[in-house]
Amino acid sequence: MALPQLIPSPSSSSLSYQHSINPSSASSNPLNPNFNLPSRPPPLSQSLLSRRFHRLSSFRCSASSFPEKHHTNPPKSDDVVELPLFPLPLVLFPGAILPLQIFEFRYRIMMHTLLQTDLRFGVIYSDAVTGTAEVGCVGEIIKHERLVDDRFFLICKGQERFRITGIVRTKPYLVAEVNWLEDRPSGNEDLEGLANEVEGYMKDVIRLSNRLNGKPEKEAQDLRRNLFPTPFSFFVGSTFEGAPREQQALLELEDTAARLKREKETLRNTLNYLTAASAVKDAFPSS
Q1: CA 45, CA 281: separation in Å to the nearest integer?
Q2: Which end of the chain is more exposed for a tag (fewer CB within 10 A), N or C?
Q3: How distant, in Å, are the alpha carbons of 73, 221, 249, 276 from that of 252?
């Protein structure tokens, strides 16, 4: 049985994100020190779940996109490099696939530069309420198409995470100094056990979501696909699209066990909600 596909929300899986960016806020205040993340993971809403879990054939990012190891020669966390940044109203995780359409002039300039160099730029979460986050993920261009009007269609893959340490310039596009983030050792935590628990909750959420949406309750098999716990935790986080602030909180954690525990709590809360909704549906079939 093939891996069940988890669907991102339509609003964040569109190829065009540029209309959601506030250029003036990025140039006048590239980093917002008051960017606050939720301290407790909320349950995922039913509308979000139906978008994420029941349109199984449309998912853009499967577990097979997440390699067991992200780098042959991973960068050191104390390395400081300059990185062009692309603020977006979404969160990119290591290993995740991100389609983009580039049409704003300053980002077309960026693409011309990147296509002649190392094909890597930083994706950083930004919105009108919270501003621009300090932690993001490198996107590496793995496929591109340049159109006759100089727009670009890109397929990018998430690589290492980074933290912004300083702004180099804001024009024609944002460039920052960054250092790399790596998960710290989780001590005596049973990461394999945690990852297996999270996988179990994911399977149950998919099954109940399918049931509530009138789809066959097929058993999801092997969502991990031999992933080690850390890349699996990023894969799980990438399926929480439609809840970008929760995703940002997961991206910023530097402890695999803490990330898996938070994902487990979110999925458990969601499963409780779905179980109650399923009971109501059984009791009142016509509702």
Answers
A1: 16
A2: C
A3: 22, 29, 5, 32
- Dump pLDDT digits (tens) for 129-167: 889 999 999 999 999 999 989 999 999 999 999 999 999
How distant is the alpha carbon of residue 183 from its chain centre?
Answer: 16
pTM greater than 0.85 (yes/no): no
**Residue at 128: amino acid letter:** A
Task: Provide long-range contacts, Cβ within 8 A and 24+ apart, for 208-217.
Answer: 208/271, 208/274, 208/275, 208/278, 209/49, 209/50, 209/52, 209/53, 209/54, 209/274, 210/53, 210/54, 211/278, 212/46, 212/50, 212/274, 212/277, 212/278, 212/281, 213/50, 213/54, 215/54, 215/56
Residue with tokens 């590496």: 140
Lookup result for tokens 């960054």 = 178
- Name the DSSP letter for residue 17: -
The pLDDT value recorded for residue 42 is 58
Q: Is 56 a residue whose pLDDT tops 80? A: no
